[in-house]
Amino acid sequence: MNFLETLFANLERSAERKVLQEARASGLAHATGRELRAQVEAARAFVRRAGVRKGDRCALLAANSIRWAALDLALMAEGVIVVPLNARQVPKELVGMMRDAGPKLICAGDAALADAVRAEWPETPRIVLFDEVFAKGAAEQAESAKGPPVELADGDAVTIIYTSGTSGEPKGVVLTAGNLNFMVLRTTERVNQLMRGHPGTERVFHYAPFCFAGSWILMLLCLSRTSLLTLSMDLSRLQIEMEVAAPHYFQNVPLLLERVRRGIEENLAKRGGPAQKIFARAWAAWLAKQNGEPARGALWLMAARAAVFPAIRKRIGKNLKALICGSAPLSRETQLFFMILGIQVLQVYGLTETTGICTMDVPGRAEPGWVGPAVEGVEMKIGEDQEILVRGPNVFPGYWKRPEETKNALVDGWFHTGDQGEVNEIGNWRILGRIKNLLILNSGHNVAPEPIEEKLLGILPGAQQVILVGHGRSYLVAIVTGDVARERVAETIERVNREMPHYKRIHGFHIERKAFTIESGLLTALGKLKRDAIGARFSGQIEALYREKSA
């Protein structure tokens, strides 16, 4: 059976069990396997009436919901190529991607979004709202849509996912049934390892938009297992929603885990007293141990595990077995922070072009600062400039309508990731940065900014983001966001500079109190820095830093 047939069979077995639920302010709204199948059948009937056939494209433009999942499954079951889009992107960007994909139908979550698209694209294809797809009476019309999914060959396109575009124009990544068959199987194996011995239903929480490959894979995985997937419906209520969901595991981006860590540290600092003292001593002992220094502070660790950590863990999640983290490298110190609390952080590395995943940490064997070994069946090696090359059933067949870019990305069967990395003697990989992010100084020295930025963030309390600038210049400067004192930033930079060769030292900085956000256009939807946009926005401040130094 392919991934979709496996999923549908699981929904049949789970007819009376809750499989999906939405965490709303008014309470939980759920769907059993039978109820989700009924919604899928209603959507399949609508798609057929709309004249959308196998191989056509359909854009899916809405926030996560049970209906989003049902419509996605319905489109795939009809052989329609799904084009999932991020509802938080501006209409101009959305229309650019839809023009490229050429959908026969656009399904929008609400009227305001549909109107915004029409205003930007007067000649838009037909747009329908979710309310129309799932209108009353649809269940009666769905009788003709019952049955198994259409047959999908391994080479059949299932989706076109547009890359987030930290710089340049987003490209449509085509993923096939074969890609999904492989990846759902491999992720199932890892989760089996994590949940070994756990009876009953797994509880999973999720907040990242389904338009991203890794997020979508998680949805398909959960619906193929004995899982209850709780969807976040309001990011401002994330802490409350997590407590309601009480997950065994959930997927994260480093940005959220860094915020959780800072929140815990700030709360402890405000409280002061014995709890803060015990935690600080235990943390110092834990870091020393992890860095291979002589053992000390074992009693402080024992005290913290007895008196401090349980209360912190309860706030994060009483059932939590692991935090899954991807989309960008997580700082080693943050990974160690959760480990000291008894929560394993399992890192995943991959790109949309690799069906979201290349490596996955093995539960119980995660190495802090590394992103785990290549999943079974995937080959990885180092090319020129330490670039990571990938080959295997997870690699996409090409970019939508971009043969030249496909040719450049896929050479002799190897996908050129654009990421720099290294692999250690036990097969774990570490991501050093993006080749295109390299800062090449006018001295000819190459500087990967990410490790230095990560180092500064880890030891500068209050800092939200750090970005290094210096391409084509004679030295580096930094922009630091957050509520940080100028003297503290200077001291921290000086401390880091002492550990660096001369060309990696930072010679000036600008503090921006407001953090970069998705809404400001300075972060991607997954929290990655849009370096070109930041450079353009703060060009005046950057130039001032270089003028000050040369004056």
Short note summarizing the structure:
With 551 residues, the chain is of the alpha/beta class. 40% of the residues lie in helices and 22% in strands. It has 3 domains: 3-248, 3-Layer(aba) Sandwich (Rossmann fold); 254-318 and 320-435, Rossmann fold, CATH 3.40.50; 438-550, GMP Synthetase, Chain A, domain 3, CATH 3.30.300.30.
Give me some keywords for this one:
551 residues, alpha/beta, Rossmann fold, 3 domains, 8-stranded mixed sheet, 5-stranded antiparallel sheet, 20 helices, 40% helix, 22% strand
Task: Describe this entry's structure for a reader.
- The chain is α/β, with parallel strands linked by helices and 551 residues long.
- It folds into 3 domains: 3-248, 3-Layer(aba) Sandwich (Rossmann fold), CATH 3.40.50.12780; 254-318 and 320-435, Rossmann fold (3-Layer(aba) Sandwich), CATH 3.40.50; 438-550, ANL, C-terminal domain (GMP Synthetase, Chain A, domain 3, 2-Layer Sandwich), CATH 3.30.300.
- Helices cover 40% and strands 22% of the residues.
- It contains 20 helices and 25 strands.
- It has an 8-stranded mixed beta sheet with strand order 2-1-10-9-11-12-13-14, sandwiched between helices. Strands 15, 16, 18, 19 and 20 form a 5-stranded antiparallel beta sheet that branches.
- Strand 12 (322-325), helix 15 and strand 13 form a beta-alpha-beta unit.
- Helix 8 (177-194) crosses helix 9.
- The longest helix is centred in the middle third of the chain and has 18 residues, at 177-194.
- The model has no long low-confidence stretch (mean pLDDT 91).
